[in-house]
Amino acid sequence: MKRSSLSPDEFTFKTVSEQKLKSAKAKTNKKKNEILKKKGMHKDPRTTDLRIFGSDYFINYELSWLQFNFRVLAEADNDSNKLLERVKFVAIVCSNLDEFFQKRVGGLKRQLMAGVKDLSVDGMTPSDQLKAVRNDVQNMIEQYRSIYFDTLKPKLAEKGIKIKEYAELTDYQKKVCDRYFQKQIYPIVTPLAVDESHPFPFISNKSLSFAIELKNPRSNETLFARLKVPSNRPRFVQVHRRGSKVILVPLEEILSTKMDQFFPGMEVISAHTFRVTRNASLDRNEEEAEDLLETIEDELRERKFAEIVRLEVDASMPHHVKKYLIKNLNLSWNDVYEMKGTIGLADLMEIATIKGFSRLKSRNWKPVLHPSLRHEVDEEMPSIFQVIKEGDFMVHHPYHSFELSTQRFLEEAANDPNVLAIKQTLYRTSADSPLMHSLMNAAEEGKQIAVLVEIKARFDEERNINWAQKLENYGVHVAYGIPGLKIHTKMTMVVREESDGLRTYCHLGTGNYHPDTAQLYEDFGYFTCDPQITSDVTDLFNLLTGYAPDQEFEKLLVAPKYLRKRMAEYISFETQEAREGRTGRIIAKMNSLEDPLMIQKLYEASQAGVEIDLIVRGVCRLIPGKEGLSENIRVHSVIGRFLEHSRIFYFRHGGEHMYAIGSADLMHRNLDARVETVTPIEPEELKEYLQYIFNLILRDNIQRWTLNADGTWSRVERKKGEDKISTHKVLMSHIKNSLPPIPQQSRK
Asked: Is residue 288 part of a domain?
């Protein structure tokens, strides 16, 4: 087998672009490291261990993310999906793009403004990346708009969902529109003039607005005004519904036809929609903050006024009006994306979830009760603590019910008089989370409750701050995490007094304690009272809320101090096994694979002959199947009804067959800048189930994509005569009817 050298003499690792920005923070980083040392979580910076650099070894992060969004878009173009599901995927693509511009493009633009010209690990400058991003985004816009306007919208009309312009309505339907405008819209809309006494107005993030050109007939003067489309009203107004037929009119279409009513005595020359996206990639020096809560609240306020990173405009808008917007919004033409027709198609989610039309939607999935928690009709429901004591078990969401497992665990703990203490980490949850109410009730009952609230969770900061304040009001001990680190681990521990003394029960998961996303995100939750694991969890909570510089863990792999080192050791073990002629095998499932050092380790393993399958939903910077580098690595991605979110790791480890689940992807941020846990799974029946999941995904011929050596992705095609295997459909069917024998596929 041809091998490529990874000698440091031949390849030089160049500083990534982010490091230049960080150099200005040496003082605050020093203070942060002092705090981390006290916590026992100090991490050594990555140095010259990375010996490869450039596009021959790494795919660009931003372009890989866009490739993921193209795979999502392919579901909108997939006519085997139900019609309204296809509309939903268009909405998801557009919502994903919004977040991409806020986080990723926003960060690149800040680097560009800071004068950063250093290369990322794949060999691109911020300027290079922005140009490449723009090309791919333009292509994506053309594709999703063609899919929606040319294919889906006509099909919707055929099936009884018609989206019309005002002029296409009957006289009666126009009257319905007129009444709606007068009663529901006109009173809440505020037109804003722009002149010497009225400065150009603030344009809020992701808001849809009209740029209006007016003429004063008396003075012949041309004026400009802005009118915001109200976001607290439906984007698509229902003007007719009878049986299985509905007529919808976009809200901006109604406003456009009534524009003159906002400017009596003026002539409306033109009125065209535009939409802005603001940067959310702000970087405050939280390490220097005396009050972290106040710092994050300040960041939320600052984000509302952050620089604009994208301007979407109606293509028919006059050129001079576009120039006017660009000037006043402090943008360049490269920030402008022109499109014909409706702007802001993330709002198509309203149509995708329209009431009725069940024939156009996927059949509702109702999660089932895990077998360990089931009981006969005439039997009393078993205590969840008794079930855990009888043996570890693992729930698989959304196939198993979150409400009747994880949520029940908290509710039962809150109400159980024998429970003395509950501790939980909170990264994201719902606006009215029943889990939080259970914790508040438990605190009122006199139990010791501690919650580590991550108030730096992107886009959930405000919600988490509100929950933290509510919890504190009920007497819950609330900690806000560690400066410089996000607490991303998902764990709950319950201490219960029993006849033989205190016993600790734990839930460790791959997903957030969020009852809503648990219906859509694929995740695992592990329930155990294993003394070694529960002791590790107890120690980790104590470390996070106090100081424990010498803390070590028996079983848990904890980031940032241990996880990178242990993962590297596991990969190295497989590498050595292969070099000595024994079988080396790695399978890993995650959301993203980005970390350069982990990728280098996987390349080395492949070169030694280790067979590697990586199941990566989103970003993957590793190049698989490349001769002399990675020909033993295969990368897969599953896109479909549910969002694959779990992280699972398998190492053959000399026949020991090590399995683990956790909250961490193989990304720099997870390994070095977050508190994460990866938990070994040791019960044989649970290991068999995880292998079942791997086998199922690797045989999927409906939802699975594979990454090619040139960085492109291809959907796996079902071979002639081959049974259809769709991961989500198989699991829904099998879990509902109890699982069949494990598919016969070797772990070798």
From this structure: no
